[in-house]
Amino acid sequence: MQKMFLAGSLALIALLVFLWLRERRRVKNLQAERAELLRKLSDMEALPQRLAVSRAVIRGKLLEALAPILPDFPFPYPERIVYIGGTFPVDYLIWDGERIIFLEVKSGSSELNVNERRLRDAIRRGAVEWVEYRPALGQRNPGEPTIEIVT
């Protein structure tokens, strides 16, 4: 009888340990699911702001591309307008027949970034040069490339 009681007690203890381990695993899984749901909720709460920023960037890029054909564009000679934007810190280079104009298109409350401000300041200081480069390969008697710098 004592052996049956001992065997029953061990079986009960084993069952309790098994149930406790299973419950512990279930609680960990629930905690992980809760953490994932909170992360998703946080992402969803930030989504309107991210969408607004994304829309503003897209709108800015669109206005940048369409600027020369907009009715209030201040330069009436589209054949003298060259898009140089992308990775360059200014969007358009314009030749009006007498001067060269660096044009940066901005929309909404956007401001010049660091590189755009540096370029603007260099132009204002007059730190602009004309450089004519003639590669040696393009000459009849190849030798050294020639570079003429006019300031």
Description of the molecule:
The protein is an alpha+beta fold and 151 residues long. Helices cover 51% and strands 14% of the residues. The chain has helices at residues 2-66, 114-125, and strands spanning 81-83, 92-95, 100-103, 130-134, 146-150. The strands form two sheets. It has a three-stranded antiparallel β-sheet with strand order 1-2-3, with no helix packed on it. The mean pLDDT is 85.
Tell me the β content.
5-15%
Q: How much is the radius of gyration in Å?
A: 35 Å
Structural class: alpha+beta
| Individual helix count | 2
What is the count of β-strands?
A: 5
Strand order of the largest sheet: 1-2-3
Task: Quote the average pLDDT.
Answer: 85
Note the main attributes of this structure:
3-stranded antiparallel sheet, alpha+beta, 14% strand, elongated, 51% helix, two-stranded antiparallel sheet, 151 residues
Brief summary:
The protein has helices at 2-66, 114-125; strands at residues 81-83, 92-95, 100-103, 130-134, 146-150. It has 151 residues and is α+β, with helices and mostly antiparallel strands.
Ordered list of secondary-structure elements with their pairings:
Blueprint: H1 2-66, E1 81-83, E2 92-95, E3 100-103, H2 114-125, E4 130-134, E5 146-150
Antiparallel strand pairs: 1-2, 2-3, 4-5
